[in-house]
Specification:
Length: 133
Amino acid sequence: MDETERVEVSTLVVAYRDIAPTGEMQAAAYVIHAEEAVRHFWRYRPPFEDEPHYSPTKFEVRLHQPLRAEDQVRMTVQVDKIGGKSVGFEVAMEKDGQTVAEVDITWTAREPETGEPIALPEDIRDWLYRYVP
């Protein structure tokens, strides 16, 4: 992995299927691609025993400039908060060095059998702190 392909960085070329009749990327596509960036980041975590399941509980999207088909986008994931039972990610989307969108995603840790919210494991918390700015 070279320095431009870090764990928290992924890229995207906007596909035609993501484009609305206005010629701009549909709002839902920002969320979908931000979730993909978080999953890309998350797959590099160390293996943990008895890891809880994680589910999204909040999304917030801030659009600065519209994206269009074939735009090349760099997505950078930052951990912006670590709570008792949840973790917040901010995905910055950049085109040509300019931030075009920011998507905040909150995941809640859940007990696999019941789905009840549970505390984030200490090992996960320790790993996440490496990505807090």
